[in-house]
Fold this protein.
Amino acid sequence: MKILIAGAGIAGLAMALALRNRGIPFELVEREPSDTGRGAGMYLPGNSVRALTRLGVIDRVREIASTIDVQQIFDARGRLLNEVDLASFWRRCGGCLSLSRSALRRALSDALAETPVRYGRSVVLLQRDSAGTLVTFSDGTRRTYDLVIGADGIQSTVRSAIFGQEKLVDLGIASWRTITDNRFGITGWTAMLGRKRTLLAIPVEDGKLYVYADIATPDGVFAGTPADTMRELFSSVAPPLLPIIDSLNPAAIIHAGRLREVPAQPMYKRGVVLIGDAAHATSPSMAQGAGMALEDALVLAEVLSETKNVEAALTAFSARRLGRIQWVQKQGRKRDAVRSLPGPVRNFILSRFGTGLYAKSFGPLLEEI
Ligand SMILES: Cc1cc2nc3c(=O)[nH]c(=O)nc-3n(C[C@H](O)[C@H](O)[C@H](O)COP(=O)(O)OP(=O)(O)OC[C@H]3O[C@@H](n4cnc5c(N)ncnc54)[C@H](O)[C@@H]3O)c2cc1C
């Protein structure tokens, strides 16, 4: 069976590893000329950690990553609203970790060492013919595959070629992400909630800190640099996170953008399947982007190893994945809605029911895939 994976992000690299681990050959192409290492931090709840274990890369990831044992949510004045013992909750999956996106990508691509990625080569066109899916690459070459796996991210070329140019759903939230030195003694997942806005800090590797900020806003046009905007939006928060805002360097690399979703639906059609953000980009408030991509890869490799019938494999894949992904998207939207409630209502809900709500959202993800 000839398999092409389009995109070497977290989904594509995990897919390659999962197929390699099962002895299934594939080709992997990536649009970027090299592993760019772009991006900020990744918090990995326990189900993502379990998936990395099943992919065989957890030892390398643990060497680099920070262990995150506690989640704390404060209001903007610094009053603790809720604390979750993550180490206990996720114990059977191996706990929670966090690291930079580039370190996670490197751990996955290092594990693939002898199966190189074809960098600088993108998929530009897909056409169905009687022999399979004919793919045209950016260098003009063409090749037919029995299965094309679209792991090419939220703006997926594979998705628009096969499933049409459906619109991404804007979630009404503008966000900023950066990595700075952890001079602030932050040891766990630490969030502060202001009016329709969230500031979050999580330790990553090498004494660094991943900082995420967002605000619910229908348009999100901000004058000034991202650092100025973050300072303006969060200048009134108290410790523990205020010193981070005060120390923001105007020259820091800050990724700014709007949060968008690809609503999950069956994403396969005659020899083409989507995984990761291409299939189901999601609000980050469940921190499940990597987890869902890693799980997709494990399940798809498993069903492909069980049958030579591609269509049967893709039907089985979709049946096993769709409900779980739709759950994550629904919970993400609910959590975003709670964060945007008027302060007193939100604070009451989180301080009275925060731990129960956490268990309700994440409990199903403790189950094996
Ligand atoms: C603000 C924010 C915070 C987040 N925080 C977290 C978090 O803490 N934890 C977490 O688990 N998730 C988080 N996520 C989600 C997570 O980043 C994504 O779900 C994850 O990176 C998706 O990986 P992917 O491989 O599907 O897509 P991508 O990482 O986008 O990779 C797609 C790859 O395909 C390549 N490509 C694109 N088009 C083509 C083409 N035509 N041909 C060949 N290659 C192509 C791209 O260059 C890229 O390398 C966050 C997301 C956002 C927006």
In short: The longest helix spans residues 310-339.
